Structure to design on (861 residues):
């Protein structure tokens, strides 16, 4: 067996140290880290992964797409995959800004306490990278999702996109009203996941802790103030009132395990494309 | 023994993934990859290779010069070598755009079927990096070379340079005529190597397959249309009419073996300079 | 035990090959090398070192700050350390332009021959990175230091700073006179360390070799002409007249041993900050 090589393609000028440490701890033998990668300069890098090892050894090379800008990562991933042809393919994983592993860890935390197939969930900040992905995963499990964004138009666009990704799913867009999240959004919700922009508080402690239907609340923001007032980043299966709560560090252990397992998994085949659904599935296997 | 360290100095902004994978597969322990290297910024990098290990351990550090621009690689190699003094030297290898390993693999393919010392060879695109190097290797084996370029002036310049590199060699420059490659060029040729720019077809299938003297035809271009119509990049010792043919992928296995062996060889001494002739010689040892 | 990871943060565009080779030879498992690092872009890199491994494993990640510009390295080190909070800390080492290891090696060379607690030392070029650090180390050993700079104002500023770093120390600033280093500076000096800018000769051979009190002379400049005429970069415990002399390469072996030992030491704890004093102390342990 040749050494495993992970080609880290990062859209930021300096490639993520975080992703590098995780790759090392996942057992990658050789890590090739590139910053400032764009669809315009990626082709020859991918060719170098495609044309250096024979068919039997291709699975020992894989590509990780990362960086702080999730939209840029999505475009880069598309460019990478468009470079492959036929069986000349190496496995890929995308986790820009931790979006896929964080969404998977958040939904898996909820799944410990809820039957997702019958759950009504509210996603606050549902048009952002983590919120959108969490919505996608919940919908694929059969949950009903109320997707909330400051802009009803953006929420509606995201919902349309989700209906394309999860045909027949039950997703409803909501904007914020003058007084914030409306009663209609919260009524009957058993799960709230807050994944909005840093520093935006969506709900006061009283407003969500007083909600009779609510069983689980998760806030993925790592820096206070959080989107759900009263949750701590350290919360991990902690009760606030009648609600089981998780903060960003509380789901961090699961997120790290999924990230490492996904990197390790890359080298089991030359044909994997580990994106939102695949990374969540892998997290379910680990759970 | 200290770990082997290969210092990869690449003239492109992002250092070649291809060269990195080959280095890993050649068994290099530690690979230091730099992009955007120029004669102006290389000195301190080379000093770092020269002044960190004692005389007995210097052979465990080596320098590889690469990148897509062969002329830039040649200038960089000169700057690297000018930095050494006396015995404070590490071994070097140059293979910008695969020029040396491709030329060696092409000539070695011909050598399987021909006595090069008595061969009359035509090099189409003989002023480019691979064509020029293939001509140099053939001439050093005693072959007669007809070096063809679109510009007769550039062909003549290249021929003069070759006569400096291989004193007493038999090299003749040719330009293209209005109708392309002239009869005079082809008459009596036993070997044609096409190494022109991408997308330029020099000869129709009929014109080279109908040549009574021709025994071997090689096209090093990896992307169709090739310089010799009718050759496939996959051809490896395949007959088209009476002619034994090789395409770029057909010689690719040999090219890769030479590349890896050359990288491994770097660490056998601190005094090697692996360039066109040395890399070809190493290929002959492998054959 | 997880693999040891050294995060090399270099203020130059291309990270130092010298520091990379030393890191490899010090036994670092994985080296993450970044060039062009500034206080403005370092935070997320440091976060990647802080937030990827659990408390028990944090000591297997460490940060090295380097680059040719020592002032830039000092600013970067401050930015790195300001990023840590509480126990979420990894060990750091700073050796921009070899300033700390060179100063330590120079003072340790002097210490082989002198009782530093009673030594009167002259530092030529005492406001530069190596000279200033050598002065600091000598003062911390109890020596009297005459700190010489072309500008008396800069010498006075450096002396004031040293008095802050080594409370109660005996440091006196001197400028150069029209005829160079004054008699007052040299009278009674037992040690001279020349650490000025490249190409500046402070003293003729006769002027320092004729000094009756002088026992040891060290010049840390690697490129002739040196600051002390008549010393060779190769000098290692070599007598010129009655004076024991060392040149840059003469102290180079000690410098390298200190550098390697310091990198190795980084991984013994997650709480070390190896700067001037700590690196010198480690050198004393090795001596």
């Amino acid at each position: 067996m040749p050494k495993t090589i992970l080609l880290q393609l990062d859209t930021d000028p300096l490639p993520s140290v975080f992703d590098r440490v995780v790759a090392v701890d996942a057992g990658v033998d050789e890590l090739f880290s590139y910053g400032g990668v764009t669809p315009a300069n990626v082709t020859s890098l991918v060719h170098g992964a495609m044309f250096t090892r024979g068919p039997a050894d291709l699975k020992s090379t894989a590509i990780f797409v990362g960086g702080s800008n999730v939209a840029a990562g999505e475009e880069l991933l598309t460019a990478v995959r468009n470079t492959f042809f036929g069986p000349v393919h190496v496995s890929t994983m995308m986790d820009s800004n931790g979006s896929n592993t964080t969404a998977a860890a958040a939904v898996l935390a909820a799944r410990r306490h809820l039957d997702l197939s019958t759950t009504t969930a509210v996603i606050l900040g549902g048009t952002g990278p983590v919120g959108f992905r969490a919505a996608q995963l919940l919908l694929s499990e059969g949950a009903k999702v109320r997707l909330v964004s400051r802009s009803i138009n953006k929420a509606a666009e995201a919902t349309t996109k989700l209906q394309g990704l999860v045909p027949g799913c039950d997703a409803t867009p909501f904007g914020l009203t003058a007084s914030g999240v409306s009663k209609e959004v919260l009524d009957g919700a058993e799960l709230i996941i807050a994944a909005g922009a840093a520093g935006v508080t969506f709900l006061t402690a009283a407003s969500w802790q007083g909600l009779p239907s609510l069983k689980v609340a998760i806030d993925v923001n790592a820096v206070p103030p959080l989107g759900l007032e009263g949750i701590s980043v350290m919360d991990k299966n902690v009760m606030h009132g009648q609600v089981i709560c998780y903060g960003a560090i509380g789901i961090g252990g699961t997120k790290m395990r999924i990230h490492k397992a996904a990197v390790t998994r890359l080298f089991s085949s030359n044909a994997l494309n580990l994106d939102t659904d695949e990374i969540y599935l892998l997290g379910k296997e680990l759970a």
User: Anything to note?
Assistant: Residues 101-246 of chain A form a domain with the Rossmann fold fold (CATH 3.40.50.720). The CA atoms of residues 239 and 245 of chain A lie 6 Å apart.
